[in-house]
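[Automated response] Your request has been received and processed.

Submitted sequence:
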Amino acid sequence: MAPKVLLSALLLIAVASQALGAPCGTWDIVAEQSRTGRVVEGQPEYAVDVRNGCACAQSEVKIRCYGMKSYEPVDPRSIKSIDDENCILKNGAALTREAPVRFRYVWKTPQDFPVVSSVVQCGKR
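Generated structure:
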């Protein structure tokens, strides 16, 4: 009987933590991009939306961007290069499910923006 009660309790905890949005991680952050149709200096412009699919906010989101190459300046409030490989989103401020980060850049081909790291903020306000 005790193993069934323990198993039921563990199952309930697992379901409850998923419902509350925990655990979360970098796998919940996704960058989607598309061509805007605008052309600058003969190169296409891309619009990027970075979304956090987790109910918990995530701050200090760093993505691989290799210096964020663009023929036009990119809004540093959205994405800023911090070294030769990585960029930080929103100057480290929290990325929530309700408010994706949006930016545009102009380059020959679309760039990949894999997430490198983040700090999960479940339960913090």
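Summary generated for your ticket: The chain is about 15% helix and 40% strand. The chain has one domain: 23-121.
If you did not submit this request, please reply to this message.
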